[in-house]
Amino acid sequence: xxxxxxxxxxxxxxxxxxxxxxxxxxxxxxxxxxxxxxxxxxxxxxxxxxxxxxxxxxxxxxxxxxxxxxxxxxxxxxxxxxxxxxxxxxxxxxxxxxxxxxxxxxxxxxxxxxxxxxxxxxxxxxxxxxxxxxxxxxxxxxxxxxxxxxxxxxxxxxxx
Length: 160
What we know:
CATH architecture: 3-Layer(aba) Sandwich
Strand order of the largest sheet: 1-2-3-4-5-7-6
Strand content: 25-35%
Structural class: alpha+beta
Radius of gyration: 15 Å
Number of domains: 1
CATH class: Alpha Beta
Oligomer: single chain
CATH topology: Aminopeptidase
Shape: globular
């Protein structure tokens, strides 16, 4: 079940992100989230703004993601390509799973598509597992976007 996260979920959310950072490092992607991303204050802000969601099974948080509908400032400039469409879209950031329940990305996408059919997401060039999943889930690589810290990400878009 996907639901909005609350502050009481924060310890479980932090554990999911810790697991995801370890998984990424073990699979050739140690720098995307380093040892401490996302910071607690960012997660608290996401919760306060009603855009952090948890994937819960058997009363336990097994996944987490940020989802928001509207313009994302990091997607305003794209190089080596172009977005497929300029219509309103939903953006997914900071998606992570603790690996206990397969299919986290699929459940996330089903939830997000129930809100809006036009989705954008990005990932690090070293995050090959996520690139594979996004390709498999019907996303199109659109180019390169840059995060607030200037680091590049591969941008993806999917429209129904």
